Amino acid sequence: xxxxxxxxxxxxxxxxxxxxxxxxxxxxxxxxxxxxxxxxxxxxxxxxxxxxxxxxxxxxxxxxxxxxxxxxxxxxxxxxxxxxxxxxxxxxxxxxxxxxxxxxxxxxxxxxxxxxxxxxxxxxxxxxxxxxxxxxxxxxxxxxxxxxxxxxxxxxxxxxxxxxxxxxxxxxxxxxxxxxxxxxxxxxxxxxxxxxxxxxxxxxxxxxxxxxxxxxxxxxxxxxxxxxxxxxxxxxxxxxxxxxxxxxxxxxxxxxxxxxxxxxxxxxxxxxxxxxxxxxxxxxxxxxxxxxxxxxxxxxxxxxxxxxxxxxxxxxxxxxxxxxxxxxxxxxxxxxxxxxxxxxxxxxxxxxxxxxxxxxxxxxxxxxxxxxxxxxxxxxxxxxxxxxxxxxxxxxxxxxxxxxxxxxxxxxxxxxxxxxxxxxxxxxxxxxxxxxxxxxxxxxxxxxxxxxxxxxxxxxxxxxxxxxxxxxxxxxxxxxxxxxxxxxxxxxx
Length: 493
Hints:
Layout: E1 6-13, H1 31-39, E2 41-42, E3 46-47, H2 53-62, H3 66-69, H4 86-92, E4 96-101, E5 116-119, H5 132-139, H6 169-182, E6 190-199, H7 207-212, H8 235-243, H9 252-279, E7 286-292, H10 311-314, E8 319-321, E9 333-334, E10 339-340, H11 344-352, E11 374-378, E12 385-389, E13 393-398, E14 403-408, H12 426-438, E15 448-449, E16 452-453
Parallel strand pairs: 1-6, 1-7, 2-9, 3-10, 4-5, 4-6
Antiparallel strand pairs: 2-8, 7-8, 11-12, 12-13, 13-14, 15-16
Helix pairs in contact: 6-9
């Protein structure tokens, strides 16, 4: 046993917290996560401070929010800031740091402090590479054919995976991580970052997992009374609705089944990684932290994907299992503190007994300090959204048109009733609006006047043609040419 515990940090992409068995979902099968929740502690009030892939991952790896790390809009050409990263700090403390899966940094082969990275970047060879999963399927006899399924990374088409099962990115990520655990340096504790790209689209589960959900019933998503009149929606919501207007209600059952199939596939594959730790004699001396970069609305309130602060977009599943017998992660416990992704770094450094760098904004999830309000900040244009939550109450602000919503998550966890006009909640609204004013930075400062939220004038929404099919991938052999990294595809507005 090493002086410091091993650390397995597991992330998934676009998985809402509600879509887990332990959270009470009526159809999803997540036996591994459910068991981890029984042997560790879960944090049901964990939010992504900026529910977009790149900003969220910058937050996890630096322990800082966008105000420090610099991106709340999804900038694919932005290098990591000159800040201590989680793997770099752990390496300096003697850890061997290895990542497998998605990092979503620029350039893609930047190791951001890891000793080794085995990369799966969702078909982005135009940003540079190479991508290790692409190399693997080429070695299996399928060069450039990873996206021959024809599905899209930013849409809700679905079909079964088209290559042999072992070529699926979820299987490859698991196999590669198990091999890296076996290839560890036995003289050093291990920090293993296991980063699955699913259930983020493309929705291409294995046929066997689609079969599991063949008879699963439709789970109706929530549709709030505030969401029924599209013309009354702020610009940011109209942009999302317009972008996925082709997704019809009759598609929802198939989408749900495909999405849940991807989730259960990850859940089952995670068992192999835990089993490898057990067989290698490492499990009892390993910290396991599971979370996601953000969720997916999946049709809730007629909305899709992320970039929003409703529960299914911003609230993420989070489970922490300490070393065997660790009193800070009591088996089966629930911790209702407000948690952000900036808390990942100080939490894992806490278990490692490593001093937290001064730049880190997050708080240890097993520490005594707790925040009273958690802020969220996404985009800096007409699509901008902001959040302030105390846990029970959550306020959302859309600067374009200066529209505010207020939800009581204790009485209305599905956010079906906007309470912003409720006179009994005026003190709550004032308190949360004051928190947004206090936390304002950058473009936000132009949307304040005399310490009040005033936003920007409402903007007429006009949808744009989607000639690129939301960033549709093509055949990747020979690889597509290197292209401008600052070109953003697959995003509304």
